[in-house]
Amino acid sequence: MAASLIWLILGVLLVAAEVLSGDFVLVMLGVAALGAAGAAGLGAPVLISAVVFGVVSLGLVLGARPALKRRMELGTGHRSGIEALAGATAVVVSRVDAHGGTVRIGGEVWSARSLDRGVIEPGVEVTVVEISGATAVVLSGA
Questions:
Q1: 125 contacts 142 by C-beta, under 8 angstroms
Q2: Which residues of 70-95 are buried (b: 16+ CB within 10 A; e: fewer)?
Q3: Predicted local distance difference test score (pLDDT) of residue 93
Q4: Dihedral of alpha carbons 90, 93, 97, 100, sign
Q5: What is the spatial distance between Cα 139 and Cα 120, in angstroms, rounded to a whole number?
Q6: Cα separation of 57 and 10, whole Å?
Q7: Under CATH, what is the fold of the domain 81-140?
Q8: Which of 40, 55, 81, 141 is 20 to 30 Å from 120 at the Cα level?
């Protein structure tokens, strides 16, 4: 029973320490220690618990950790807010030139100005190059 308690404490400490490192190594070792605690709790000798710890930690560090790291590095790939508007297609609502005008982007009307300083007439499709403040900077020829 004492061995399972030691493994349990070690596992909880390692998982908690992962919060500080963020590298997914300590959490893998912590889960392996919890597995060893389970084995010890079922009456396995200390040597078998240590083998369980070694096998589970090796499997997690070499198997699950790389997949988790890749997933975290990729992120969701979801752009939101004004980041999502760059590259979008808009339709000119009122004449757009270098000084102003309006466009419709996905159902919303935005103030706009032309990037190439040309005049763009209503009904023309344009590409949103960037959002500058509350103004869409657009380029004709979408």
A1: yes
A2: eeeeeeeeeeeeeeebeebebebeee
A3: 95
A4: negative
A5: 9
A6: 13
A7: OB fold (Dihydrolipoamide Acetyltransferase, E2P) (2.40.50)
A8: 81
